[in-house]
Amino acid sequence: MTDKIKIRMPDGTHQTFSGREAWTLRHLLNAGTRGLTTLNHPAPRWSHYIYKLRKAGLCISTDYEGHKGEFPGTHGRYRLETPVEVVSGRSER
Fold it and tell me: Structure pTM?
């Protein structure tokens, strides 16, 4: 599977992401201001893909929330704070 997304940053520059970074960015964009959590969207290595998007210049906030259940603890809620425009994006399988 090849997944790509090209975005326009606030300063007018373009960035293209592929693979899991594109997948993660697409999920963040779809989540909007409510953000997303690993609790609701289990996937491998969310924190690593968030890290890579941050290194690329995107501002992604993390708020920590408690949860109960059999294994109580905390989880992060990620929100894309950088206003971006999707220029093109495709998903191939």
Answer: 0.84
